[in-house]
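Page 47, continued from p. 46.
Same chain as before, 206 aa.
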Amino acid sequence: MPTWTRRSFEAPGLTQYPTGRHLAAVQARIGGSVVLCLDVSGSMSGSPLTQAKVGCRRFVDEALQAYYEVAVLLWDDGVVGHTELTRDGRTLDRFLGGAGIRGGTNVVPALYQAHQLLANRGGDRVVAIFGDGDLGDVAGARAKSDVMRAEDIRIITCGLGLASAESLDVISTEATGAGPRVAAQDDIADSIAGMAGGLRRNGRSR
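Result:
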């Protein structure tokens, strides 16, 4: 059972009967929606982007297994592109495969787009952000994250290197007590896949 989802479900039953017309409603109630935001700014060129794609695919697989719809969003100083929320792993995989390097860094447009994707969705709502720089527009990022937090949208972040991690952590809603999530150059894939580890049952938001 994945450890990052808000609730754990250990009782038997859902997989022991033929699926019916209420399956989608049940999945929405026990799962939720996740927007995974990947930094494709110029400094992610080469190995960092290659590793990041591997980590994103692992994160997507875990989310789908936990009955979450997933959208992948690519960001630099704007939104480069995104998928809609879906449970189609092949669509998400193809989109990640086409991710390439772009421009500068500003997370605010990504936050706005993620918020729009999650609007009117039921269940747990999460934005997971990986980056290797700062927030860009710090005041704008704080303001938007406050609005999302007020709507019970959770934000988890991971930065490549301590400086990036501390910058992104400003908008995180996690309250792990362990400090910001930091990825090193040689463990980017594991760090992205592990971002969900702090979203355990009964975890508190800031």
